[in-house]
From TrEMBL:
Organism: Paenibacillus elgii
PROSITE patterns, per the entry: VOC (PS51819)
Name of the protein: VOC domain-containing protein
InterPro entries found in the cross-reference section: Glyas_Bleomycin-R_OHBP_Dase, Glyas_Fos-R_dOase_dom, VOC_core
VOC domain boundaries: 26-133
Pfam families with a match to the protein in the record: Glyoxalase (PF00903)
Organism phylogeny: Bacteria, Bacillati, Bacillota, Bacilli, Bacillales
Length: 133
């Protein structure tokens, strides 16, 4: 990817500049891959008192108070590299296109029905994620 130097509020394009809106609104969740989802959920709820925010067979999101939730994914359910946390945006397509304009290395947009995401890498090569639901 090209390394684009900008003011971070506007980037040059053919014929002028485009305003950058910085569409990432919050850290949505911290992600952890675990060997045993059931055991992990039981430990975090019974030992630490976290509450289940939502749960499926392949994922569990727990919350402590009003802070950022933690999402557990079974290690064997995700074969590829997995980000440690993700950001939320209410405009996934806008955030995706904006990052491309800024020269950020982005992966494809994935649609999981109620959740859409894309991965990207920071300038140190760390894999991160943006989601919308």
């Amino acid at each position: 990817m090209a390394n684009v130097r900008t003011s971070r509020t506007a980037v040059p394009i053919t014929g002028g500049w485009i305003q950058v809106k910085h569409r990432l609104e919050r850290i949505d969740t911290v992600l952890l891959r675990v060997p045993d989802l059931e055991r992990t959920v039981r430990w975090y709820t019974e030992t630490l008192g976290l509450k289940i925010k939502w749960r499926t067979d392949l994922i569990a999101t727990l919350k402590a108070g009003d802070g950022t939730p933690i999402t557990f994914v079974p290690q064997d359910a995700v074969k590829e590299e997995c980000p440690f946390f993700n950001f939320y945006t209410s405009d996934l397509r806008g955030a995706y296109e904006e990052m491309k304009l800024l020269g950020v290395e982005v992966g494809p947009i994935r649609d999981y029905g109620t959740v859409q995401t894309f991965d990207f890498k920071d300038d140190s090569g760390q894999l991160l994620n943006v989601c919308h639901f």
